[in-house]
Write a structure and sequence with these properties.
The chain has 403 residues and is mostly helical. Helix content is 79%, strand content 0%. The two termini are 32 Å apart.
Amino acid sequence: MFSQLSHSVRQYMIVTFNYWNFTITDGALRMLVVLYFHDLGYSTLAIASLFLFYEFFGVVTNLVGGWLGARLGLNKTMNIGLLMQVGALLMLALPSSWLTIPWVMAAQAFSGIAKDLNKMSAKSAIKTLVPSEQEGALYKWVAILTGSKNALKGAGFFLGGLLLTTIGFQFAVIAMASVLFVVFIGSVLLLDGDIGKAKSKPKFTQLFSKSEQINTLSAARLFLFGARDVWFVVALPIYLGSVFNWDHSLVGGFLALWVIAYGFVQGFAPKITGKAEGKVPDGRAAMWWVSLLALVTGIIAYSVQMGWQPEYVIVIGLLIFGGIFAVNSSLHSYLIVSYAKGDGVSMDVGFYYMANAMGRLVGTILSGWVFQVAGFAACLWVSFGFLLLAALISIKLPKRLKA
């Protein structure tokens, strides 16, 4: 059956399968690190520092990785990412006494490079597999890939909490490394060698985008993802465990539910934003959706600060946040692929995801620091401020795209 599909669809399925498997390990590893090192007595700021290199090298990787993808081909950058994640997981398969902060930060650096090579390669590859005049189909394919990825990342959160409870940290990372190595072998054998390779070799000086619309969208993306990670990465799982006394499986299960629901909504974003009526979203849609997200976040932050049933407000409110955030993320993912030029698409996509990684870096650091000094409500207020900035920046996005 697989052999009867068109070549483009087969390649899309291979890219998506690689991305799915990588994403599960990425989500599981994040949950494992947060919960395991909290059990070892690390402060929230110390746990956030473990992700510092993960996010920092994500910034560098997206910038340089887009250039590499355009020169070498996206198959090579994707396969390098898979292999590096295997190495990062094995670095953590040591006795706990050997897992010093510098060693874990180094492993997380490799994982951050791997994750963004893999993501940039997958998102860029879609642009090369969909005809340039089919904007509606492009939006649909991007939404499916992005939505399924986040659903599986949520499954990874649950898997991380479950594995930590059942087999322990070291055996968990060894098991994930083994599965991912098998995926890497399959990718080397099945993925085309010329996906996304630019016709002319781009110069290193072309790394930074000269497109105003891509620069504007990238700035909005930075604050959008900073707004999520400032409460989600470190503050929320520690808050659920320390204030509500949830165990590891329950924390992992809730975060899994959040991300799975978020991914599910992303997959349906084209229907939510009007594709069923023959429309594709533009900059105006991005501005309105992020403004709605800012309003919801402000209401949640105020409710938590006032102590109005915080457990219900956080659980229900953040599920609503996740649904609206999912539409925002899917809109952005479509717009960047649409704005990007066809030849050497990974250059523009890489620059955009560099801004995404910068937002995650800032959000991760603030998640540990703000929570430690001012509490969870303060993290939500910072999130609200970031979303207001994203809405203001989005005013400059182009208002119309071709259908």
